Amino acid sequence: MADPQERNGSAATAADQVTDSPMRSDAMLEVRDLRMYFPVRAGFLQRVVNHVRAVDGVNLFIRPGETLGLVGESGCGKTTTGRCIIRAYKPLGGRILYRREDGDVVDLAPLDDQSLRAYHRQIRLIFQDPYSSLNPRMPVVDLVGEPMKVNKVARGQELEDRVADLLRRVGLRPEYMKRYPHAFSGGERQRIGIARALALDPRLVICDEAVSALDVSVRAQILNLLEDLQQEFHLTYLFIAHDLSVVEYICDRVAVMYVGKLVELASTDELFAQPQHPYTEALLSAVPQPDPLIRDQKQRIVLEGEVPDPAHPPGGCYFHPRCQYSDGSSCVNETPALRETSPVHFVACHYAEKLSLAGVVAPGVMG
After folding, report:
1. Angle between the 140-150 and 156-169 helix axes, to the nearest 10 degrees?
2. Distance (Å, whole) CA 188 – CA 202
3. How is residue 209 annotated by DSSP?
4. How far, in Å, CA of 331 to CA of 327, rounded?
């Protein structure tokens, strides 16, 4: 198998990649058959003997102005998916179709670094760890202003004025811009990271576990801030998380990943009330319930076995070794396609229409 970072042909330019390929008319971004494999090397010569299938044929779309949640267990490939979309990684295969403001559609997957610069201004990333994501040797004015300086958007007093305005918008005082990261709490550092992500006036922001490292009370504040900024700046979010109660609070739709594959995609309300994939049902059974009567009646689904090794995934449906509904035949031998079982509800399960799965009866709480 070819190295994941190599692609056939010469480096493409943005002009070369404007495509008339059909794309969902309601989507800003559409990912098709996205694949990202990492090589496994062994021996004295460090030859490639296998690949870890971190992202294995993912399909999803994001509409302008919405928040799409991408959830799953640790190691399922959701962060790698986000980093492929922002092109921190060059995917092995698939397409990343992005609709520009002028309406043209561009495939970001094969673009070279120079061609990607314009799109890096429009697609930004908020990191998980507010401590390690900020350079401790740089004051806030440089941390937030660096993207503007690198892209020659502003300099000097104009840059400081724009940084001050961004700090106000994320709930920090402009006087803080001369301070260094060690002078701030975790929540304040994450606000600085958000201001940095907004410095170039992006259209799409990828929030990679943006609140998972924060205390519960601070987490709620940051989620409310993200919602306010979405309205103010007309932002679209890809919200990567493992906590379904947080996803329920902020997301319009939810995509569920398992071992590099997307297994379900639906609106948040529908997915929580009527899941159609057994893995989604198991995840929802762990969502905390505020009502003690419902909590006592609820049965937690404990999955047997271990998550498959993405370097040696099972045949057929990747979830079948842990699925209580597996038929032992088609589930083992046939890979289910992600298909639309009801309007805008997509599931990768052979028996999605036949199963009656338990959802969340009452709204969860952030925990």
Report:
1. 120
2. 21
3. S
4. 6
Strands 105-107 and 93-99: antiparallel
The number of domains in the chain is 1
**CA separation for the pair 46, 61 (Å, rounded):** 38
Spatial contact of 48 and 40, defined as CB atoms under 8 Å apart: yes
Q: Measured between alpha carbons, how far is 47 from 44 in angstroms, rounded to an integer?
A: 8
CA 220 to chain centre: 19
Tokens of 258: 């398992």
Any domain includes 113: no
Tokens in use for 341? 């079982």
Asked whether residue 139 carries a pLDDT value surpassing 70, the answer given is yes
Residue 75 lies in a domain: no
Assess whether pLDDT exceeds 90 at residue 161: yes
* Cα angle 193, 195, 201; round to 5: 125
Predicted confidence at residue 243, as pLDDT, reads 87
Assigned domain for 300 exists: yes
Q: How does residue 235 score in pLDDT terms, banded at 50, 70 and 90?
A: very high
pTM above 0.70, yes or no: yes
Which helix (H) or strand (E) segment holds residue 352: the answer is none
Instruction: State the sign of the Cα–Cα–Cα–Cα dihedral 223, 60, 356, 308.
Output: negative
- Going by the DSSP 8-state scheme, the letter that residue 291 receives in this structure is -
Residue 87 phi/psi, 5-degree rounding, is 65, 30
CA dihedral 8, 14, 16, 22 (to 10 degrees): 100
Which range of residues forms the domain containing residue 328? 262-347
Tens digit of each residue's pLDDT (9 = 90 or more) over 302-343 = 788 889 999 999 999 999 999 999 998 999 999 999 999 999
Q: Which two tokens stand for residue 142?
A: 């440089």
- As a whole number, mean pLDDT of residues 76-83 equals 95
Residue 243, CA atoms < 13 Å, CB-side half-sphere:
19
**Contact indicator for 86, 108 with CB cutoff of 8 Å:** no
Q: Which helix (H) or strand (E) holds 89?
A: none
Residue 357 belongs to a domain: no
Coil, strand, or helix at residue 287? coil
